[in-house]
Amino acid sequence: MSASPTARLNIDLAALSHNYAALKRAAGSAEVAPVVKADAYGLGMAAVAPYLARQGARTFFVARLAEGLALRTLVGVDPVIYVLDGLTDPSAFAAQRLRPVLNTAEQFQLWLQGPSNVEAAVHIDTGMNRLGVRPDEVAALPDPGQHRLALVMSHLACGDEPNHPLNAQQLTAFRAAADRFPGVARSLANSPGIYLGPDYGFDLVRPGICLYGGGPFGLAHPDIQPVAHLSARVLQIRDLKAGESVGYGATFVAERDMTLATIGLGYADGLLRSFAPSGFVTVQGERRPLTGRVSMDVFTVDVTGMHVGDRTWVEVLGSSQNLDEVAAAAGTIGYEVLTRLGARVPRHYG
Ligand SMILES: *Cc1c(COP(=O)(O)O)cnc(C)c1O
C-alpha cells in the first residue's frame, strides 16, 4: 500500500468472531451460514471468509457466480457455497462444487438436465417479488429425481421492521410452499430474521450485516459489536474568518472565526456525499461537525478550540460512532455505508 495513507479501515476480527458467536446463540439449533457477497460487505472476502471458516462456518452464500468461484479458492474444497443469482452454466457450478440457488422453473429444469452431482437450493418468493419461484408455481416444479435438492429458502422483505405484517405472511407462505419438499432443509432468516424469534430460524440462517457490525433493526444492538473502524488523517489546518465559506458550492458560511481541519477521506473512498451536512466525526474523543460538502478526496471539520496537527487522526466510523449512526446521518443504511468503502482505503485486520 501507499507509503503514507490518509485513511485506514481496521477490521476487528475479534468483533467479527464475537458477532458470529452471538448469532449462533440467537439462532439456536439453526446452522449459521455467513453471507459474504459484495466482498464480505466491503470488508474483504479474502480475509473474512477463511476467518469465519476457521471459526466453524461450513456454509456460505454469495450473490454472483464469480464470487463463488473466488470463494472456493479461498476456503478450499469442503465448505458449501450457495450462489444466490441463480443457475446459468451448470458445468461451471459442477467444476467447483458450487450450489446454485434456483430462482425460476426454467433454472430448475436446467439443473435437472445438468450433471446430477450438482446440489442446489430452490428460492421461493414469498412476498419480496424480486428473485425466486412464486408459491403458486411450486406445485408444478418437477420431481428432483437423482438430483439432490439440499435447501428450500425464502427471503424477508421487512425483517428489520419487527411489527410489519408481511413478516408473518411470508412465514406462513414459506411453510406452505416448503411442504412441497419434505425432508429438505429450510432457510428463511437473514440477520433481522434471526431476531424475529425462533419461528423464523428453521434449519439454517443467512446473516450478513450483523456479522459486520450492523444492528438487526437498523440500530445498535447489545449482541453486536462494531467490526469496521474507519479513520482518516488531517491534511491541513486553516483558520477561517466570520463570513468566509467552505468547499464546493460555498454551502457553509462561518458565523464566527473558526478553525477547520481538512481530512483525507472523500466520496471516492466511500464517504457518502450525503454524510454532510448532518454527519460528524470524532476528534480526540470529541464529536465534531462536518462543514461544507464531502468532496472526492477530502472533507472538512470544525476543530475550533482544539489542539490538532496535520498528523492527527479522526474516527469516522467505529467505536465512537457505530455503523447505524453513520448510515442515519447519511440518510441510508449500514449495508450501503460498508459496501461503498473504496479500494483506495487500505484494510488492516487484527
Ligand atoms: C444479502 C442476503 C442475505 C443477508 O442479509 P442481511 O440482512 O445482511 O443479514 C440473506 N439472504 C439473502 C437472500 C440475501 O440476498
Describe it.
This protein is α/β, with parallel strands linked by helices and 350 residues long. It folds into two domains: 13-205, Alpha-Beta Barrel (TIM Barrel); 228-349, Lyase, Ornithine Decarboxylase, Chain A, domain 1. The protein is 26% helix and 22% strand. The chain contains eleven helices and 18 strands. It has helices at 13-27, 37-41, 45-54, 65-75, 90-95, 105-113, 135-138, 165-178, 191-194, 323-329, 334-340; strands at residues 7-11, 31-32, 59-62, 80-83, 99-102, 120-123, 149-153, 185-187, 204-205, 228-240, 245-246, 252-253, 258-263, 280-283, 286-291, 299-302, 313-317, 347-349. Strands 10-13-16-15-14-17 form a six-stranded antiparallel barrel. α7 links the parallel β6 (120-123) and β7 (149-153). The longest helix is centred in the N-terminal third of the chain and has 15 residues, at 13-27. It starts with 6 loop residues before the first strand and ends with a strand. The mean pLDDT is 96. It binds pyridoxal-5'-phosphate. Pyridoxal-5'-phosphate is lined by residues 35, 37, 84, 155, 190-191, 206-209.
What does the secondary structure layout of this molecule look like, with pairings?
Layout: E1 7-11, H1 13-27, E2 31-32, H2 37-41, H3 45-54, E3 59-62, H4 65-75, E4 80-83, H5 90-95, E5 99-102, H6 105-113, E6 120-123, H7 135-138, E7 149-153, H8 165-178, E8 185-187, H9 191-194, E9 204-205, E10 228-240, E11 245-246, E12 252-253, E13 258-263, E14 280-283, E15 286-291, E16 299-302, E17 313-317, H10 323-329, H11 334-340, E18 347-349
Parallel strand pairs: 1-18, 2-9, 3-4, 4-5, 5-6, 6-7, 7-8
Antiparallel strand pairs: 1-10, 10-13, 10-17, 11-12, 13-16, 14-15, 14-17, 15-16
Helix pairs in contact: 10-11
The structure holds pyridoxal-5'-phosphate.
Pyridoxal-5'-phosphate is lined by residues 35, 37, 84, 155, 190-191, 206-209.
